TrEMBL record:
Domain of life: Bacteria
Organism per entry: Solibacillus merdavium
Keyword terms, alphabetized: ATP-binding, Nucleotide-binding
Name of the protein in question: MinD/ParA family protein
Keyword Nuclease in record: no
Length: 292
């Protein structure tokens, strides 16, 4: 297994091909609109000309396909089990966003066999070469296997609301990840803010706490307003950015995407092409520890 991992590592280090960014979207608790944010954010990136894919990692409870009004025949689990090819488990929305459902029955990363793990690595390598952005829509909270995966992913968007419990859970989530990987980049977003000031205050509070207690600076992505069209879109199984493009939340999301793309261009110039090898090599190291 170590020889296989080394071959893959050398392959990635020697690659000069296009490398997409891996981004996880997390929340400390459920019900904060994480998956809704991910699907709509990814959709606007696709409309801006970017190739985007979402991996629904809320194992057994994934809902990305429900939000976009689609059903899935195969999942990531089917691919990892060797039942189907990666393309067969990949589906696309009408807006051009690709997505892979997590399926049910997936267990700890450390329980996966070398063959399954190799398929996982091959999948991630393939996706990072094909797409500009690979989003991991993680389940709420954190367990051992998801924490290990999160430490491998380049950047993390943390979704919170202004509620004190949501703020505490978001901080706890970042703390767990930071203690395992102090170099991790965090981006904060306040969802369902009643005012712009509330959104700014929420993200600034989280930023201040991270600096005070963990000496970790984080980035503020912004906030999204409370908007009734979100609930309407969910009931209709459509995306609010598509069905209600003129709604306040859709316009705000558009601004966030443009800011994100500007920052993405700057980061690409700084980090060049080393990100894919970092992402994959971290995953291989985690698996090696689990098998040792």
């Amino acid at each position: 297994m170590k020889d296989q991992a080394e071959k893959l590592r050398q392959k990635m280090l020697g690659s000069e091909e296009h490398i997409g960014r891996s981004i996880a979207v997390v929340s400390g608790k459920g019900g904060v609109g994480k998956s809704n944010f991910t699907t709509n954010f990814a959709t606007l990136l696709a409309k801006a000309g970017k190739k985007v894919i979402i991996l629904d990692m809320d194992i057994g409870m994934g809902n990305v396909h429900i939000l976009v009004g689609k059903s899935v025949k195969y999942s990531l689990k089917d691919y990892l089990d060797g039942q189907v090819a990666l393309d067969d488990a990949t589906f696309k929305t009408e807006e051009g966003v690709s997505y892979i459902s997590g399926g049910s029955g997936m267990s700890s990363l450390m329980d996966w066999s070398p063959a399954v793990f190799e398929r996982l690595i091959n999948a991630f390598e393939s996706l990072q070469k094909e797409y500009d952005f690979v989003f991991f829509d993680m389940g709420a909270g954190v367990v051992e296997w998801s924490l290990d995966l999160l430490t491998s992913i380049e950047e993390i968007i943390v979704i919170s609301t202004a509620e004190p419990t949501s703020l505490m859970d978001a901080y706890s989530m970042m703390k767990f990840i930071h203690l395992k990987d102090p170099q991790k980049e965090f981006y904060l977003l306040c969802n369902r803010a009643f005012t712009a000031d509330e959104g700014l205050e929420t993200t600034q509070r989280l930023k201040t706490v991270m600096v005070k207690f963990l000496e970790k600076d984080v980035h503020i992505l912004g906030s999204l307003p409370e908007d009734p069209v979100v609930r309407q879109a969910v009931r209709q199984q459509t995306l609010f950015t598509t069905s209600y493009p003129d709604a306040p939340i859709s316009k705000t999301m558009g601004k966030l995407v443009q800011q994100f793309l500007t920052a993405a261009t700057e980061m690409k110039e700084v980090h060049a092409s080393s990100q894919s090898s970092k992402f994959l090599s971290k995953l291989k190291n985690i698996f090696s520890r689990g098998r040792g």
